[in-house]
Write a structure and sequence with these properties.
Chain lengths: ~450, ~170
């Protein structure tokens, strides 16, 4: 590549990416208005819990965990793909990740923030939330550190902070690029955010080490976080929950749903922000391959759960899984199987994988399927456990549907804001990929 | 850098030219240099003096402190008021591992970030020389030299492809 060509490519990348930071178009304003309405509905629905009581939800005895905890697990799961694409694929030197890692990281940060709200919403009396935080108090009482619910507090908080750090460190060189191409107040703000980055060999040297170390720390963290979430269930004795397979099963499910959500977000962004030259069909093809792999793991987990229930000879466990497949919630279970186990397998076909509309439909179905999976696991297990006298049914109330809609509104609103404030593609990394690297398989 | 000698800045269009420029300076005995670039250039690691990498020690130290803090927080608080919960002993070490691990990662990441900012001098305390194009598509070389050498350095660097050679801007970025 000639010198002038390198300069042109570098400048073209800057232009393409920074275009999205300019004044928002009508489409963006319309999108923001729609998601803000959803968010407003969610806030209104939540205000009912505050002003009336937790009883406005459909929760009852025995189903005391319902759509709100489903949403919590769902959003934590979505937060996992960012770290997978940014950290794990970085450690594996998968060079194709560079065009999409920033979007995945932003999604992680926003999704984990959304997830973190649900335990508070679920509590009902949110003003008592500080009871969860270990702090010296006059009663000399401390939280129960043996409880998986407290493990959640530590795991989710740690994951959120580390994700923000990882996102921010990756942004620093790009923030300097924005700083140098802006003026006035905007320049001042980006100067503060970029911390005076100059791109010196000393800074790059430490930057590379730091990014690698944060990736190495985030990788076991991401596995631990969803394992901890799974232990909220597995550590109890409820049939259908009390299983050692839960941790890997939940981690795989989290990555599965996260990859699907990345496709759901990337495809319209690529079109509307004019990023077709940076986010190519290759990226979707690779994400589809990850979807297939994760779908196979998930399908094996479904099979394994049923097999263990049958093989154990435990009547309660067997009934729990019979109820899941043929009971009141069975339509949801079979839609889940269709979305998570059957549709993704069709992506083995290269022809279908290259059909963007089909890929998008499958990704949306997987997101829905994974929400249903969490709902089916949580609700069907609680609704019929040991004692038939205590069985009961649950269906989310309009308040819970409103809060669920609001969570999507919040997620997309915050994500949209981030894409206006920060470059959506890691420009420095994409520029680096223009140079052939060791073990380069030709992906850029 | 604490070197008080005058500095010149050469701007290149590619990393290859920058590397050639550095090699040319090293051959003529100019050892104090700094490169500015929009992308990391691993090939410069062997050519330019790199400070000792302390970030990894920050990470290790943070993880150890965090892990010890996480375990100690749980152990000391349950011993302060030993309540039997769920039939488990007050010091339930296996159950404590989760929070200990999370704290190790959190403190490790915070310490890594602190180590990075310290060693990369972010934000800079004193004003440093900068070339605005280096966050976009330019590659620049700062050379500390004796005043009398300016002309010969300029000729050398232009011979290996420097687009311009001049005195650097004294402003810090931003």
């Amino acid at each position: 590549m000639t010198n002038e060509h390198t300069r042109d490519r570098f400048e073209q990348i800057d232009r393409l990416v920074l275009r999205s930071l300019l004044r928002p178009g009508k489409l963006y304003i319309a999108f923001s208005a729609v998601v803000l309405v959803c968010l407003g509905l969610g806030v209104f629905a939540y205000s009912r819990i505050i002003t009336v009581a937790i009883g406005v939800t459909g929760k009852n005895n025995p189903v005391h965990w319902g759509a709100l905890i489903t949403n919590f697990v769902f959003w934590v799961g979505l937060a996992h793909s960012g770290t997978l694409i940014s950290a794990i694929l970085y450690l594996f030197r998968a060079r194709w990740r560079t065009s999409i890692n920033r979007i995945a990281e932003a999604m992680t940060v926003v999704a984990i923030m959304t997830a973190g709200l649900f335990p508070l919403v679920h509590m009902g009396r949110v003003w008592r939330a500080y009871y969860l935080v270990p702090y010296p108090n006059s009663r000399e009482l401390w939280p129960n550190f043996r409880s998986p619910l407290l493990w959640d507090v530590f795991a989710i908080t740690t994951y959120m902070l580390v994700s923000i750090m990882f996102f921010y460190v990756g942004l620093i060189p790009d923030l300097a690029t924005v700083r140098d191409r802006s003026n006035g107040l905007v320049k001042k703000v980006y100067s503060l955010l970029s911390l005076g980055w100059r791109g010196s060999n000393r800074q790059w040297h430490h930057y590379e080490t730091t990014y690698l170390l944060l990736a190495a720390l985030a990788t076991p963290l991401v596995i631990s976080v969803h394992s901890v979430v799974s232990w909220d269930f597995a550590v109890s004795l409820v049939p259908g929950w009390h299983s050692t397979i839960f941790a890997p099963y939940f981690v795989a499910g989290a990555i599965f749903s996260g990859c699907a959500m990345i496709i759901v977000i990337l495809m319209p962004m690529r079109k509307f922000l004019g990023l077709e030259n940076l986010i190519e069909p290759l990226h979707f093809s690779m994400l589809c391959k990850m979807l297939i792999f994760m779908s196979l793991i998930i399908t094996y987990s479904y099979f394994s759960e049923f097999f263990v229930a049958w093989y154990s000879g435990n009547v309660f466990e067997q009934h729990s899984f019979y109820n899941r497949a043929f009971g009141f919630y069975s339509p949801l279970f079979w839609v889940m199987v269709l979305c998570n186990s059957i549709l993704p397998i069709t992506l083995f076909s290269a022809r279908l994988r290259s059909n963007m509309i089909y890929v998008y439909v499958v990704a949306v179905c997987v997101v829905i399927g994974m929400w249903l999976e969490r709902f089916v696991i949580i609700v069907s297990s609680l609704s019929q456990d040991y004692d038939p006298y205590a069985w009961g049914q649950y269906w989310p109330s309009i308040v819970e549907w409103g809060i669920t809609l609001g969570s999507f509104g919040m997620f997309f609103f915050m994500f949209g804001m981030l894409t206006r404030i920060f470059p959506v593609v890691a420009m420095g990394e994409v520029k680096s990929q223009l140079r052939p690297g060791p073990g380069d398989a030709g992906h850029a | 850098m604490r070197d008080k000698r005058p500095i010149l800045l050469a701007v290149f269009s590619s990393p290859q030219e920058l590397t050639e420029g550095i090699n040319s300076m090293l051959r003529s005995g100019h050892k104090t240099m700094e490169a500015l670039s929009p992308i990391p250039l691993p090939e410069l690691e062997d050519l330019l003096h790199q400070p000792t990498d302390i970030v990894r020690w920050f990470a290790l130290g943070g993880c150890i402190v965090g892990g010890v803090f996480g375990m100690a927080l749980q152990a000391l608080t349950v011993l302060h008021w030993p309540l039997l919960v769920g039939g488990k002993p007050p010091l339930s070490w296996p159950a404590f591992v989760v929070i200990g691990f999370e704290m190790a990662i959190l403190f490790g990441a915070l310490a890594t970030l602190a180590g990075f900012m310290l060693s990369a001098k972010l934000p800079p305390i004193a004003k440093e020389h900068y070339h605005i194009g280096c966050s976009q598509s330019d590659f620049a070389l700062l050379v500390w030299h004796h005043e009398l050498d300016y002309a010969s350095i300029e000729i050398q660097l232009k011979a290996v492809g420097a687009r311009e050679v001049r005195l650097p801007e004294t402003e810090a970025p931003g």
